[in-house]
């Protein structure tokens, strides 16, 4: 290196610096593309696992619902008498926020929200979050709702 003139040494340093800069940019672009591909694959999996389901009124009780009426489910659905409930059931045996039906990766789950009269799935009282299958009947007060795809 001592035999190289100073100008050549600076030129060599500039070339190395530019090479490292372009190499760094190449690596950044490669990582970004890999992350975008990974995100695209992940969003396709999420779309495949999107919640689909609704509740069909089997027995309306005194709620004023029609038998056979179809109630759409959201990923988090609160069922109750309160006006802000996702599915509003106007029945004296239904609490303001009676039960919650939730979608997870594992499917639909129902949770009793501390209601006075309790929530039942296929006749069994719900004490902890309970997994649901299509065809299961959820009883809220006198109202019976069947989970359907």
From TrEMBL:
It holds the Pfam family FHA. InterPro entries: Cell_Proc_Reg/RNA_Proc, FHA_dom, SMAD_FHA_dom_sf. The chain crosses the membrane at residues 12-33. Gene3D superfamilies: 2.60.200.20. Residues 77-126 form the FHA domain. Signal peptide: none annotated. It comes from the Bacteria. SMART domains: FHA. Keywords: Membrane, Transmembrane, Transmembrane helix. This is FHA domain containing protein. It comes from Sphaerobacter thermophilus (strain ATCC 49802 / DSM 20745 / KCCM 41009 / NCIMB 13125 / S 6022).
